[in-house]
Each structure stands twice: as structure tokens, then as C-alpha cells.
Amino acid sequence: MPSFSTLRTKIAGMPVVDLARQFGTPTFVYDAAKIDHRLSDLAAFDYVRYAQKACSNLAIVDLIRRGGALVDAVSAMEIRRAFAAGYKAEGLPPPIVYTADIFDADALDLVVEKNIHVNCGSADMIDQLGSRTSNRDITLRINPGFGHGHSQKTNTGGPQSKHGIWHEQLSDCMELARRNGLNVVGLHMHIGSGTDLEHLSQVCGAMEEAAIVAGDSIYTISAGGGLPTPYKESEEPIDLAKYFSLWDGVRKRIQKRFGHEVSLEIEPGRYLTAESGYLVTEIRSIKQQGGNTFYLVDAGFNNLARPILYGAYHPISVVHAHDDADQSEIGVIVGGPLCESGDIFTQEECGYVVSRRLPKARVGDLLVIECVGAYGSVMGSNYNSKPMASEVIIYCESVHEIRRRQTFEDLIRNESIPD
Question: Is 289 within the bounds of a domain?
């Protein structure tokens, strides 16, 4: 169970002040040991497949590969990232799986050229792949007709979701695959984030029903992702033993029905990396606005978009740069530098701004936004012409910069003024 404090001095044993001094702010800092620990949590599953969209820095993907996990890609460039991090194109189980609801031209060309396993989320993908190649194994992603998510925007199942093949169309898609000379060997089901066991039992039941419809060509099932990460001390971590037991029960019943072994895969993203990440930023202004105190920092939603997108809560801690700091807490609103009213880190869904109890601070103190290792840097942008932040990883008390901060030259490199 994570323990969050509003005061912090170190990350993975390294003084935050020293990290800020060396790499500047804002900077993402990753604790590699936490990723290793989360990987070990999932050892009961036959295969762990990392959903690299959560955090796709090459050093992170390489770390997870060295930890024994496979990888999922959702674009042609993510496939290329997997190659760059050391993954091979072919093998059993497939080292790389392309999961999507469409092929763009680049992705279709690449999966055909490199023989990348495809997890199809639409009938059109089956047709398009079959028009280019045959006698290939594929997986089908199924939308069971219901969803789940900590926000409506993270709900990836049900009739309002674009994801997956609608469960009532599974038989038609099996026939479509046969006509295209493609072999459906697995089923995948991911319907949103924040899994609880009552919801999970419904997902498991839907997977079992889908497997019966698909038939005995199925040799693998994927539990998808969505494993919850506690962002608040009041949130309990999921019981992984019970989580595995529910999925293992499905697998065993399918094996008994089909008379052959069925492998059980899980596809975590956030669960592996979220807790490892910290966004170190500097307080540049403290303002009083109609009774509210604002800490304004040099990181904005261009660095961390989850609060403005989902109203997501992140633990926040203060690092005092002064020896005579006041340790008492006050209610503050934490905001960034962008020319947008929504550039607030302490907001709830629908944009409601709230205050947070944090230690009194001064300009020049550091503020650390925690649990940002998933959907943090990967969602970064250059809005307001802000450079992408640097990224640093700490492994065995060794600090490495794994992405340097963008320069102005980086920012405009692909732009031009016509004659």
C-alpha cells in the first residue's frame, strides 16, 4: 500500500533538490525499482504484456523487456519503439502485438512486412489484413456490451465505446477471418480502468461466453489492462490473488471444454509504471485570489494532462529549499504557467477547482506531483511553445537522463516559412 506524504526530500534515495539542480524543472523522475516490483506482482500469469502507451520512453520499455514482459503497440511508431528497445518481431508467444480498431496505411504496411501479430478491434481490420496476407494467426478484441472506468473517458466497453468487436458480431467476424485465410487463435477483452472484483466477474463471464462462440481454435485469452493504482491513501490496492483466481478459473473451464491448454495473458500499462513516476517542478509564484492561495509552478497540463482530461487526483508533496521552512499546512490550489484557466492540477472531473492541504511554501521551493509514471510524459505537448520536459531514471542509486529537455531548435525543427 503506497504511503503518501505532503513533504518529500528524496526520490529513490536521491535528494530532490539535487535532481532539480542537475536536470532543471519540470523533470519527470522514474524509480526503476518500483517498476521491477510491479512486474514481479504479476508472476502468476503466463505472460505479462506491457501496454507501452502508458509510458513509451525507450529506457522504460527496455527495462520492462529485461524484466521478462512482452509488449503491446497501438501504432506503427510504437512498433518501431519496441524494436528500438530490443524486442523482436516474431516468436511464440508474439513478442509484439499490434492492438487497434483501425489500420492506418503505415501500420498495415509494417505489420505485413514484419509479420507482427495483430489484435483486431474491427471487422474492417480483418478484411484489410486479409487483403494483404493470409495464413496468419490473429486475436480478436471483444466489446462485451458493457464497460468500466474511473472516468467516462476511460471507459472502453459498452455501446458508447469505439473499442473492440461488438460481442453479437463475433460469429460473423470468425467467418470473415476464415474467408480471409486468417486463424483466430486468441481473444482479448479490456473494457476500462479501475477494476473491482464484482465488475471483474462480469468480464470473466463475458470472456467465457465469447470463447464458446469462437470455438476451439482459441489458445490464448487476454485479461487486458485496467489494473487500478492507488492515488490516495484511502484507496485499497486490488487483491491480485483473487484477481488471478477469477481469470484462472475462466482459463481452466475453457481448457476443459476445448481439450487443450489455453494461456492466460495480462496487459497492464498504468499498473507497472504509474507509481514509479514523479514530476518535479518549481514554485514560481504564490498568489492570493479572493481568499484562495495559489501555488503556481513551472509545469502545466502540457506536461501532465490527466487532471484536465479526467479530473484525475495525484498526490502532491512539497520540497523545501530553505532550512527555516514552516512545516504547517494550508489549503492551496496548484496551477501551472499556461494561458488557460484549466491549467490546474487540483481539479475534479468537469473542471471543478478544489484546494489541497499542503505545507506552507515560498517561491523557489519545489513541488512534486506523484504517481505520474503512466499517461504523464507520453501525453505531453508543446502548447504555448513549451518544451517537452526532461526525463530521468534512477536505478540502483544511479541516475540517468533518458530524454533531454527540448531546445528551441528541437521545437521548430520541422517547421518552415514558404518563400
Answer: yes
Segments of 175-324 assigned E as strands: 182-188, 220-222, 263-266, 277-289, 292-297, 316-319
Residue 36 in domain: no
Collapsed DSSP state (helix, strand, coil) of residue 417: coil
**Residue that finishes a domain, picked among 267, 289, 306:** 267
Verify that 129 and 235 share a domain, yes or no: yes
Q: Using the structure block, give the residue that is written with the C-alpha cell 484562495.
A: 292
pLDDT value, residue 193? 62
Would you say 114 and 106 are in contact if contact means Cβ atoms under 8 Å apart? Answer: no
Catalytic residue among 55, 173, 339, 350: 339
Do 306 and 192 fall within a single domain?
no
When pLDDT is cut at 50, 70 and 90, the band that residue 41 belongs to is very high
pTM: 0.94
54: left (phi over 0), alpha (psi -120 to 50) or beta: alpha
Tell me: the pLDDT tens digits for 193-212?
666 777 788 889 999 999 99
For the chain, the average pLDDT equals 94
Contact between 135 and 172 under an 8 Å Cβ cutoff? The reply is no
Name 118's bridge partners: 98, 138
Which domain-ending residue is among 209, 239, 267? 267
- Say yes or no: 325 and 203 in one domain: no
- 339 catalytic residue (yes or no): yes
* Grid coordinates belonging to 249: 478459473
Structural domain harbouring 243 = 43-267
Question: pLDDT tens digit string along 122-162?
Answer: 999 999 999 999 999 999 999 988 765 554 544 556 777 89
